[in-house]
Design goal:
Layout (H helix, E strand, L loop, with lengths): L2 H16 L5 E4 L3 H15 L7 E4 L2 H9 L14 E4 L3 E2 L5 E2 L6 H10 L3 E7 L12 E5 L4 H9 L4 E4 L22 E6 L7 H9 L4 E4 L1 E2 L3 E8 L2 E6 L2
Helix pairs in contact: 1-2
Length: 237
């Protein structure tokens, strides 16, 4: 089964099991989350769901939600019961690394505001024995970012400034990638892995200029992971 088919299967199963009429739902960002947004829109369109409102975690998710007919609200207007989003890495205890899609700060704000927390959707390639297989994104203030990177490196990682690359909106692939909030992103490589995500999350928060990290510890209560043989549901705890 192709990767997109697996992502779609996980997303649609999560929506079917956790989204009901009258709910406010946090809408994640990224290719897997987009399948969940489209599924909610389809269920609204055919009348299976009614009176759903979405709190998007990025401008592109807000645009997609409007496109498929999901009314969009802000956290000032309503708090989500739960959020549905993808992840870049999922540990056995459902601690996560998120943020390769460039929206980690807004994702964490919305998903932390939910009454129940986060439902994670992914294909089996995202499962890891311990976090840190890939980079840990950290959203940073552009002012003085070099100093912030120096402090991050003292935590045992190698921080790299994320660039716009081939998807550049400015025509300059070597310019820094800028989040919806106007921040830079440090992709931090912990070559020895991350043994205590919650403690590392606290350490990063104490660094001036480090606004938020892609460590999501204690937020996910359920994960829907698609494999060739079907969708596995993993519950926290």
């Amino acid at each position: 089964m192709a990767s997109d088919d697996l992502k779609r299967a996980a997303a649609e199963r999560a929506v079917e099991e956790h989204v009901g009429s009258g709910m406010v739902v946090g809408l994640g960002t990224g290719s897997t989350a987009a399948f969940a947004v489209r599924k909610i829109g389809a269920l609204l369109a055919d009348g299976t769901l009614r009176d759903i409102r979405g709190v998007p975690t990025s401008a592109r998710t807000a645009a997609l939600a409007r496109e498929v007919g999901i009314p969009v609200v802000t956290l000032a207007e309503a708090r989500p019961l739960l959020s549905i989003d993808g992840a870049d890495e999922i540990a056995p205890d459902l601690s996560l690394i998120k943020g390769l899609g460039g929206a980690l700060l807004r994702e964490k704000i919305v998903e932390h505001a939910g009454e129940r927390g986060l439902v994670v959707i992914a294909d089996e390639s995202k499962l890891v024995d311990a976090l840190g297989r890939g980079p840990l994104p950290v959203e940073v203030e552009p002012f003085g970012w070099e100093a912030t990177f120096a402090y991050l490196s003292q935590l045992g990682c190698e921080p790299t400034l994320r660039l716009e690359g081939e998807a550049s909106q400015t025509g300059n692939p070597d310019s820094p990638f800028v989040t919806d909030g106007g921040h830079y992103t440090a992709d931090c490589f912990f070559h020895d892995g991350i043994t205590d995500p919650a403690a590392l999350e606290d350490e990063i928060r104490r660094i001036p200029g480090a606004i938020e990290s892609g460590l999501f510890a204690g937020l996910a209560f359920s994960a829907f992971v698609a494999r060739e043989g079907g969708v596995e549901v993993i519950e926290a705890g």
